[in-house]
Amino acid sequence: MNQQPLIIEIFGADIVCASCVNAPSSKDTHEWLQAAINRKFPKNNITFSYIDIEQAIENDKHRDIAKRITEDEFFYPLVMINEEMIGEGYIQLKPVYAALEKYGYITEV
Question: What is the per-residue pLDDT across 16-43, written as a single tens digit (0 to 9) for each?
Fold first, then answer.
């Protein structure tokens, strides 16, 4: 198995995005995504991170993305894998899994 170490970052806020009616909260998306990925790819080399866009952010890249979200350039939650945007707003598993497979992750049955 040739898996690259990955960083999955979920940017979001406590309040559900106004444009994402009936979508789960950002924190719920973070927990759900982590559980789904760990179930589908149990032997992974993935670090999960949740970035609250309403809190002070020290990392310059994270702060820039948070600013772009607050300026309505992106919806939240926003999911990034190794600094590549995978999805925003209502997150679906299919594009996330496709991105993981691109990095060498294989489904274990």
Answer: 766 666 678 899 999 999 999 999 999 8
Is the separation of the CB atoms in 61 and 2 below 8 Å? no
Measured distance CA(42)–CA(34) in Å, rounded: 11
Judge contact between 4 and 67, C-beta under 8 A: no
Residue 100, φ and ψ in degrees, nearest 5: -65, -40
Structure tokens at 35: 């559980």
Give φ, ψ of 88 to 5 degrees. Answer: -145, 150
Percentages (nearest 5) of helix, strand, coil residues in the chain: 35, 20, 45
In angstroms, the CA 9 to CA 71 distance is 19
